[in-house]
Design brief:
mainly alpha, globular
């Protein structure tokens, strides 16, 4: 009995170590950084809400979000949706903002009530339209749109702080104490580790299938208008950051070297370096499309390398679909 207990503890230690390292070096610092940068953006909007003034802080906040933005478990399972409402193929965000501005809805002057509006009019993508779209970004200080920008930035800060607190105070302890009596969410350390591992694969699938697949469309019908964050010229930046974040989380989870995954990330960066238009708006050109296809294949290669180097150790087949859950 003692030998069996000792063996079970030894087997559990790497899983707990990987979970703790992922939380301590990647996830919790990522949410804290996002909250800090969202606060800077909110402060900047309060001081001077004009679009050009907010561009640097907007990019800084969005960069921080991308470190943890593809996580879809715990507080982020629903909380991420109102921070980053995308994909939005029907243009709900633009339509909702247009209506708010046309009607001068008083909600723009009530930050405490703003969470009641549609998630399409909240978060980074609502701000992106107001700050970068020529049809919106020419507003003046003191205008209705100025107040709307300030309120959305204030709401984003509140969401960032709420996510950071929920991860620190509520969800991280569940992951750390997987298998403890009363923890019905995670019955073992391996289960918690697998839950985070699936997030890595899901993030890379999202990047390959949506961030790259949506604007690529088909050869006969490319859809550059669907590129993520195209208005702010971040489409390629999103791919780089998402791939780097997935690799970073994978590295934190593993207590062994990942040479195949490291090489695969380098191939993603090399493929990204060949892209001319950071907003993917040149996708109608066959050569530009080919370069995006190469980048998409590199992202898929990173997915497969992580699946081989980590999934095999966890007893999960390389063909496992992360979208299916644990």
């Amino acid at each position: 009995m003692r030998l069996a207990l000792a063996l079970s503890l030894c087997l559990a230690l790497p899983a707990h170590a990987g979970v703790n390292k992922a939380l301590d070096t990647h996830i919790l610092p990522g949410f804290a950084r996002f909250a800090e940068r969202a606060a800077r953006l909110s402060d900047a909007a309060t001081e001077d809400c004009r679009a050009a003034n907010l561009h640097p802080d907007f990019h800084a906040a969005f960069d921080a979000w991308m470190t943890v933005g593809d996580l879809r478990l715990g507080p982020s399972e629903t909380g991420a949706l109102s921070v980053a409402f995308w994909p939005d193929p029907r243009g709900f965000t633009q339509r909702t903002l247009t209506r708010l501005i046309a009607e001068e809805d008083p909600i723009a002057h009530a930050p405490e009530d703003y969470p009641e509006v549609s998630i399409a009019a909240r978060g980074v993508f609502a701000l992106e339209i107001l700050l970068f779209d020529p049809a919106f970004m020419t507003y003046e200080e003191g205008s209705y749109t100025c107040a709307l920008v300030t309120t959305i930035a204030t709401d984003l800060e509140a969401q960032a702080r709420a996510l950071s607190s929920a991860w620190n105070d509520d969800f991280a302890p569940l992951l750390r104490k997987a298998g403890a009596p009363g923890n019905a969410a995670y019955l073992s350390g391996d289960e918690a580790l697998r839950a985070l591992y699936t997030q890595v694969l899901s993030a890379l699938e999202l990047t390959a299938n949506k961030r790259l697949g949506l604007p690529m469309g088909t050869f006969e019908r490319p859809r550059p208008a669907l590129a993520e964050a195209r208005r702010s010229g971040r489409s390629l930046r999103q791919v780089r950051l998402a791939a780097g974040a997935a690799h970073g989380l994978a590295t934190a989870l593993a207590d062994w070297d990942l040479p195949q995954s490291d090489a695969a990330l380098a191939r993603v960066e090399a493929a990204a370096d060949t892209i001319d238009d950071p907003a993917f708006q040149d996708i109608t050109d066959p050569q530009a499309r080919l370069r995006l296809e190469v980048l998409q294949q590199a992202v898929e290669g990173l997915h497969d390398a992580i699946a081989a180097e980590i999934g095999t150790r966890l007893g999960i087949a390389p063909g496992f679909n992360a979208q299916d859950g644990d």
